[in-house]
Amino acid sequence: MTSTTYDKPLPIIDPGTRPFWDAAREHRLSIPQCNACGKHHFYPRELCPHCHSDDLQWTDVSGQGEVYSYTIARKPAGPVFAADVPYIIAMIQLDEGPRMLTNLVVPDVEAVRIGDRVAVSFDDVTEEVTLPKFTVVGA
């Protein structure tokens, strides 16, 4: 685990998102899948956005995907992010279909391209919270 002091905002974990955060703490990427139509979706919600069924289950996914879109933050989103600039906020298209907004952790923000293959990594920021982030794979 990382240090016990983490100054950045933490997610609010509620009953609807707890399975996601529990899986992340175990270094697994788990997202809802609809039992009616078979499609995965993200962000977690009560109804499938594809067919509106409420017959959902949490399933582990590969954590593989590609950069769909991104931006380079050159100014911090607040003082606690100052040491991180420049950093990448990316929309990742998971191989299973859904898109996920996350951080892309790379040594050179200028080298990132749309379509780059990525894999999930996990940042244990507190004992209770692990943040899924992504890294570029197979240069």
Automatic annotation (TrEMBL):
Listed Pfam families: OB_ChsH2_C, zf-ChsH2
Every ChsH2 rubredoxin-like zinc ribbon domain range: 21-56
ChsH2 C-terminal OB-fold domain: residues covered: 58-123
Annotated InterPro entries: ChsH2_C (IPR002878), ChsH2_Znr (IPR022002), NA-bd_OB-fold (IPR012340), Thioester_dehydratase-like (IPR052513)
Domain of life (superkingdom): Bacteria
Protein name: Zn-ribbon domain-containing OB-fold protein
Origin species: Hoeflea ulvae
